[in-house]
Design a protein that fits this description.
The chain is an alpha+beta fold and 93 residues long. It has 2 helices and 4 strands. It has helices spanning 14-30, 69-79; strands at residues 2-10, 34-50, 53-65, 85-90. A hairpin with a 2-residue loop joins strand 2 and strand 3 (53-65).
Amino acid sequence: MRQYELTVILPLEEDLSKAGREQLLTDLNANGAEIEKTDEIGDRDLAYELKKRRRGRYVLFTLKLDPAKVAVLDRSFKLNANLLRYLFVNIEE
């Protein structure tokens, strides 16, 4: 298992943000991710418009995950309409 940082941008609307986050956590748990730390970065202006939104709620997860599962999660995150953007970054140990 490798260590990753997952940064996600969620909508500001509370119901959409909560639904997106619950689906994200369900997908992570279903694929065996071990979430070590969650940081609420907060609401920020976006550099450019995403899905007709100018602001988003940023959340940073530090997790351990099998490298083969990253592609599986990538596919499921693309189907999550309540995620504006996401980025996996491998943390070198």
